[in-house]
Amino acid sequence: xxxxxxxxxxxxxxxxxxxxxxxxxxxxDAGYLKKELKDNPFAVFLRLDxxxxxxxxxxxxxxFDSSTIYRLGVKPESRRKGYAKALLDEMEKSFKDYPERxxxxxxxxxxxxxxxxxxxxxxxxxxxxxxxxxxGGKKDALYMVKGL
Length: 148
Ligand SMILES: CC(C)(COP(=O)(O)OP(=O)(O)OC[C@H]1O[C@@H](n2cnc3c(N)ncnc32)[C@H](O)[C@@H]1OP(=O)(O)O)[C@@H](O)C(=O)NCCC(=O)NCCS
Hints:
This protein is α+β, with helices and mostly antiparallel strands. Helix content is 28%, strand content 39%. The chain has a seven-stranded mixed sheet. 25% of the residues are buried. The mean pLDDT is 96. Bound molecules: coenzyme A.
């Protein structure tokens, strides 16, 4: 069983634990996450908890008719349980609460990130364009889009 909820400032220490487990090369720390929540009026953070506590989180932002995914991470020991899919579904459900119809969801993913690309393709995202050298000049980003 799992539960998805919207994060508040007090959640960011635990979100930072997921960051550290999922993005060890450049994790966002709790201070940065709190600032993002405070300063970005469009930012939404969803956390997913199971019996063991926080396992995953998703950050996205909706501006006008378009949503952008900024971060999605599931702790390594909790992968392939459908948690990322559940967070993406919850994000899409939230779109009905915005004044303008959200017609597009977008994201950038590193070209070699097979798990994430497979996940997004399974959720209906398609490659729109390749951004050359997006990650530190070496790796390309795939810009993926889903029409809603
Ligand atoms: C990518 C990531 C978020 C996927 O999370 P997850 O909870 O394991 O994904 P789900 O269990 O919801 O998977 C849903 C579907 O995505 C696809 N998928 C997910 N991981 C996959 C993998 N390692 N290999 C192939 N397909 C995969 C499958 O189609 C899967 O359905 P299935 O399990 O029924 O076959 C997770 O691997 C992760 O946190 N990676 C590190 C951080 C990261 O790269 N984030 C994305 C940045 S853009």
